[in-house]
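Q: My collaborator sent me two sequences in one message, no labels, and asked for predicted structures for both. Can we handle them in order? The first one she listed is below.
A: Yes, handling them in the order given. First sequence, followed by its structure tokens:
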Amino acid sequence: MTGALRVMVVDDHPMWRDAVARDLEDAGHEVVAATGEGRQALRVAAAVRPDMVVLDLRLPDLPGVEVARGLAAADPPPRVLVLSASGEHEDVLEAVKAGASGYLVKSAGREEFLDAVRRTAEGEPVFTPGLAGLVLGEYRRLATQRPVDDGPRLTDRETEVLRLVAKGLSYRQIAERLVLSHRTVQNHVQNTLNKLHLHNRVQLVRYAIERGLDQA
């Protein structure tokens, strides 16, 4: 998913919400809704069906994690980029487990935020520097606690791409490593998501780590 996006902004601070919406619109995206309440966000998202939701975790009526979980249950689910003042590890892990595709702290600059929006739209897991390792480490810990089934049959190339995804490489890095186009890598990832009935690359990383592909 590239180009202009249909984005909903969920944040209970009006000035911050307006600033985020303005940055998105200045970058060419369409802000289809903006709200400061979690329950309203779920109702509105079901009506306007945004491509992406920029979500704060601290909301007055419903925790942002619950909003992310509700959004992840939609068909199709929007990408969810958490933009929060909190960099606490527990908040990051809970958001990712609830279905967030990325997590950025509010100290990020405008360009870093817009780059995170673009990369999240392309299916990449995007985290404030230092948090990606935390998420991967948690997935590895969880992988030791559950049995692993064989799962659907992937092609050799899909498995090769999945192995590099599990190691935390971006699409561009994978394309360079395998001498493929950026689009071809995206297609392999999307095919794998479809086969495994997963919704985003964060879930794909978890699947791969559970099968030890990050150690291969």
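Q: And the one she listed second?
A: Here it is, processed independently of the first:
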Amino acid sequence: MKSLSFDTTNALCGALFIGLGGFFIYQSLGLDLGTAFKMGPGYFPLFLAAILTFLGLIIIVQSTRVEGEPLGPVAWRGMLFILPAPIFSG
């Protein structure tokens, strides 16, 4: 029996896409969707969120076909210096 191996990085990326897409789908359902000919304010965000969720599913399926490298250490120092820069410059 073959053991299940997958690429952890791609699986996490796909899960993040699905989570974000699901969140935006949920948020866009609170807006008026309209029809295809007369689109409401929630139509386009719903469409984009559905595409994001679908791409996340594709990435997760692809991650089961390839065995990736294990996750390395996180570069905390780089994130602490780079990520606040737009906040302070704004």
